[in-house]
Amino acid sequence: HTCLCQAVSTLASENERTKDLIIEQRFHRTIIGQKGERIREIRDKFPEVIINFPDPAQKSDIVQLRGPKNEVEKCTKYMQKMVADLVENSYSISVPIFKQFHKNIIGKGGANIKKIREESNTKIDLPAENSNSETIIITGKRANCEAARSRILSIQKDLANIAEVEVSIPAKLHNSLIGTKGRLIRSIMEECGGVHIHFPVEGSGSDTVVIRGPSSDVEKAKKQLLHLAEEKQTKSFTVDIRAKPEYHKFLIGKGGGKIRKVRDSTG
Predict the structure, then answer these.
(1) Inter-helix orientation angle 215-235/183-191, to 10°
(2) How many helices (H) and strands (E) does the chain have?
(3) Would you say the pTM of this structure is higher than 0.85?
(4) Which H or E element spans position 52?
(5) Per CATH, is 90-160 categorized as 3.40.640.10?
(6) 209 vs 189: CA distance, rounded Å
(7) How far apart are CA 162 and CA 4, in angstroms?
(8) Segment 63-75, tens digit of pLDDT
(9) How is the chain split into domains, by residue range?
(10) Which of 54, 83, 127, 196 is disulfide-compatible with 96, CB 3.0–4.6 A?
(11) Residue 67 zone, left/alpha/beta (φ > 0; ψ -120 to 50; rest)
């Protein structure tokens, strides 16, 4: 009897499996559900599997599964498919739309925005009416998000003489054109009737900057942007000079006096 119990115990422990599943922390809440209803469904499907999520404060992506080997594997595949669906449906696009047109996009009693949401199968968030933000956020599958964006932009285009131009500016100049906290580019946008200037995502390697707004303001912003880029380009020439480390302190001078003098006198 003792031998049989030991054999069963050994078999059970050999069949026991602990698996660390990597799931981005941003999806944990969604998988668990607002009141835990979604994780309950998964646990009901795989009652022999213990599913442990990390404490949110840990900032960990590791979800631990423990139970019979076959059940753990099945549960892993099921959850991986769920995460793949979440990733596919979590693509997000920011669409800047002039504030005065938000009411037209919403429509009477929300009819327009409801129709776009349903037909594109996307989540569309508009900024609060009293907010200064003009950005509309669209979330869902990539193709659906792009379709919803096209519809929203076409509403704006129909309501105003909106133009869009692409300007090629070397990617290495983008940060200096944007300025600290976006101040430099914001001043151009405000001066040119509130046009929108969109730089590509940092690190994408793209040189294309998009300017959108009323035609005359877009042209004005384009001229200012190209003029500023030309200035930055002129000032971004680089020369490397070799100097032994032991001489650096003499080049810098006491309290940085010498190097500051060179900077000030040469610009």
Answers:
(1) 150
(2) 12, 9
(3) no
(4) strand 50-52
(5) no
(6) 13
(7) 81
(8) 999 999 999 999 9
(9) 1-88, 90-160, 168-233, 238-266
(10) 196
(11) left
